[in-house]
Amino acid sequence: MKRLLLHICCGPCAITTLGTLRHQGFEVTGLFYNPNIHPLTEYVKRRDGCLEVAGRLGVKVIVKDDEYDPKAWFRDMAHREANRCFLCYARRLERTAAIAEKGGFDGFSTTLLYSKHQNHETIADLGRDMARKSAPFVYHDFRQGWSEGIETSREWGIYRQQYCGCLYSENERHARLLQGPKRQPGGKGPKQRGEQ
């Protein structure tokens, strides 16, 4: 049985992904390495969700809490925010590939390929680019298990996030709040044109 290292971004994304890979004959070990997730409380919720799913499915997980460094992540993204998703995918896949190679795994993959909200083709291309001779990238379109993964995560009570993970995506999710009416100090409604 081939050993595969699976980068896991959260619990719900891991459910059907793990099932698919095991059905394909892989012995899967998870890797929770996600320096993009902010704030820390959100990181812990997703880590714990990942570990809960892994526990239910009998999968070991390598957790890289010691490499969770928000300052370094923001430094890497500074002035490159428009390309941040590409950079973030690359950082996580590169680390996964390195750990897979060092650990003697027969390949690696990622649950990022499960999400309908991520740039699937970019992730697949990056995975292939990050592949090592001894640890190739294992591609599969895990989006096929999207609905089942959502349903199962709800049944199991696994924490389900509402944004990608970084503060940029969280701010974009709530950007509409800045479009509402502006209120004056003291609770009055918005100033009408010509009011002093």
TrEMBL record:
Tree of life domain: Bacteria
Pathway(s) of this molecule: tRNA modification; tRNA-queuosine biosynthesis
This protein's UniProt keywords: 4Fe-4S, Disulfide bond, Iron, Iron-sulfur, Metal-binding, Oxidoreductase, Queuosine biosynthesis, Redox-active center, tRNA processing
Enzyme class: oxidoreductase
Binding site for [4Fe-4S] cluster: C9, C10, C85, C88
Any one GO molecular function term: metal ion binding
GO biological process: tRNA queuosine(34) biosynthetic process
EC number(s) reported in the record: 1.17.99.6
Record family assignment: Belongs to the QueH family.
PANTHER family: EPOXYQUEUOSINE REDUCTASE QUEH
Name of the protein in its database record: Epoxyqueuosine reductase QueH
Upper lineage: Bacteria, Pseudomonadati, Thermodesulfobacteriota, Desulfovibrionia, Desulfovibrionales
